[in-house]
């Protein structure tokens, strides 16, 4: 079943064409990688998927709803982890997750249980009563991951999920994302890190200059070389420069 569909979407900012005829679909059970260099249009696409901006043209559907027509309905059913997002500095992790629960109209006991679960899973139980201003960037990222999943959404949109996390926690998050997608949910991961895409994604769309220039399933390997080879081939064809390939990580 298709849970995300983007058809011929365009979005510009003045003379800059951020999204240029974007087309793709994501099915239940998939962990879809949205892979491209910085400035390829990935974040703009996520903002459109969550109803933060309206495309100039084209159509978007998330769980059967146009997110720009009903952003509150979309966000009530979708988990969102923005790139470099951070919790309010004046709240503790427990207070922030309680606030997220109130906004999403969740049962307080359910939120309390999920808070404990995520604090244990990501290792921030001893920081639950610490103000976010006193947490490291990595600890804040753990809390942001927790808020994206606290309401058990059917679809999760994640921008650079492993940023600021130490290697052990990265592996824990990877494992969880794979399990979550396999449980009849969908996980959409936007990244410029080829190693992240290789290690967790079942399918990858390569994004260059605001459009997907290639799609590849990864579960059974690639027939046309490594993902890095495919990525570089299509980026070179598009004439893109300054690729962040040097920060490729080993899975």
From TrEMBL:
Gene3D superfamilies: P-loop containing nucleotide triphosphate hydrolases (3.40.50.300). The keyword Hydrolase does not apply. It comes from the Archaea. The keyword Oxidoreductase does not apply. GO terms for molecular function: ATP binding; ATP hydrolysis activity. Keywords: ATP-binding, Nucleotide-binding, Transport. Residues 4-234 form the ABC transporter domain. It holds the Pfam family ABC_tran. SUPFAM superfamilies: P-loop containing nucleoside triphosphate hydrolases. This is ABC transporter ATP-binding protein. It comes from Natrialba swarupiae. The lineage of its organism: Archaea, Methanobacteriati, Methanobacteriota, Stenosarchaea group, Halobacteria.
């Amino acid at each position: 079943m298709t849970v995300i569909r983007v058809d011929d979407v365009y979005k510009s900012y003045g003379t800059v064409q951020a999204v240029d005829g974007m087309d793709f679909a994501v099915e239940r059970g998939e962990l879809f990688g949205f892979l491209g260099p910085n400035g390829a249009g990935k974040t703009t696409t996520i903002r459109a998927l969550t109803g933060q901006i309206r495309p100039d043209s084209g159509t978007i559907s998330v769980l059967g709803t146009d997110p720009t027509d009903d952003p509150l309905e979309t966000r009530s059913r979708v988990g969102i982890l923005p790139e470099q997002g951070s919790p309010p500095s004046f709240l503790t992790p427990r207070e922030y997750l309680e606030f997220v629960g109130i906004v999403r109209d969740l049962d307080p006991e359910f939120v309390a249980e999920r808070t404990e679960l995520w604090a244990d899973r990501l290792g921030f139980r001893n920081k639950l009563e610490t103000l976010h201003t006193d947490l490291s960037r990595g600890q804040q990222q753990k809390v942001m991951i927790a808020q994206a999943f606290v309401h058990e959404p059917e679809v999760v949109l994640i921008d650079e999920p492993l940023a600021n996390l130490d290697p052990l926690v990265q592996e824990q998050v990877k494992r969880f994302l794979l399990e979550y997608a396999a449980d009849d949910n969908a996980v959409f991961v936007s990244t410029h890190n080829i190693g992240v895409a290789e290690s967790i994604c079942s399918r990858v769309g390569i994004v260059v200059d605001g459009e997907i220039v290639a799609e590849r399933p990864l579960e059974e390997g690639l027939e046309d070389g490594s993902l890095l080879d495919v990525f570089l081939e299509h980026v070179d064809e598009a004439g893109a420069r300054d690729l962040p390939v040097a920060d490729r990580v080993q899975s």
